[in-house]
Amino acid sequence: MNLTRSLSRCLLPLAAAAALLTGGPAQAQDRITFKVIGQPAATGMVQKNKEKPFFDDFAKRTGLPIDADYKAVDQLGIKDTEQLRVMKAGLFDIVSLRVSQNSRDEPTLLGLDLVGAAPNYETARKVYEAYFDTLDQRLQKQFQVKLLGAWPFGPQILFCKKPVAKLADLKGLKVRVYDQNLAKFIETVGGVPVPLSFTEVHQSLSLGVVDCAITGPSSANSSGWPEVTTHQYPIGFQMAVNGYAITLKAWNRLNADQQAKMQAAFKTLTDDIWVYSEQLTKDAMNCNAGKEPCTTGKKFNLVDVPVQPADLTTLRDAVATISVPTWAEICDKANPGCSAAWKATVGKVIGIK
């Protein structure tokens, strides 16, 4: 009997170790760490006040025995256009996915954020909810990652170091863009699109590499763009949607109950960011123009240019005439049926056939 007990005591730790080695579902007593790629620290408040605290306190927020080794992408030496590749290679477990920036590797992503398709938060939310399952299935199949949720930085507007009163004034100006859909639109209004990563923009504006650049008001404020520009034109080209994705390898380490807790935690986070993003956008617009109330950012003195109704019409019309056709040609080559799936989901929501 004593020998049996001794053998049992010896075998139990071995069995636990074997379970870990075989990558089985995480047990309550196991403590594991997920490696996480975050948003660039340079993007500001959402990363600093919502995303990073969530991952810093990951075990408590999820109710799971999991820690997060979180690092912002601009502190890793990894380009924000390479996130899906490094996830597929198994180098990280969770990524704060920059949707437009990774759309060259997976054009289906851009269906979340086509130019002109979501001019406000309410519409953007409808687009996201309509498209979630379609995009999740594609990412699982193509990159072995599961989508856990998505949220917007907010309307992506124009910042220029030259006077701009309407879209037609972009003729001949070099404009920083971050995806091919936006580049095509800027071309159609006479601008010269220049693809640049977010971290390159401040210096590029300062040196005259570009005359204008597009981002959200809060991100521009946090990174000091108003130091090197003079005008903001608040027409929202896109909503800069970003997502959270987990590798299927990491996801499948969790049992059904743990997966439900993980999904619920990310829903709480993303819902919170949707609300916070809208608050930040309104406040940052004021801060950039030196107006009150300005509670979250630094005050600057940009000229706040009123949006021309004709430009809003141009942007709205561009969805059917530019955004969808341009994107569909690229996406259907990489993912046959891509645009048809979009029209059957998002298209129904926003009235595009």
UniProtKB/TrEMBL annotation:
In this record, what's one Pfam family? DctP
The UniProt entry, under InterPro entries, shows: DctP_fam, TRAP_DctP_sf
Q: Carries keyword Chloroplast?
A: no
Could you list this entry's UniProt keywords, alphabetically sorted: Signal, Transport
State whether keyword Iron-sulfur applies.
no
Gene3D superfamilies cross-referenced by the UniProt entry = Bacterial extracellular solute-binding protein, family 7
Tell me the first and last residues of the signal peptide. 1-28
Family listed: Belongs to the bacterial solute-binding protein 7 family.
Protein known as: ABC transporter substrate-binding protein
Organism equals: Hydrogenophaga electricum
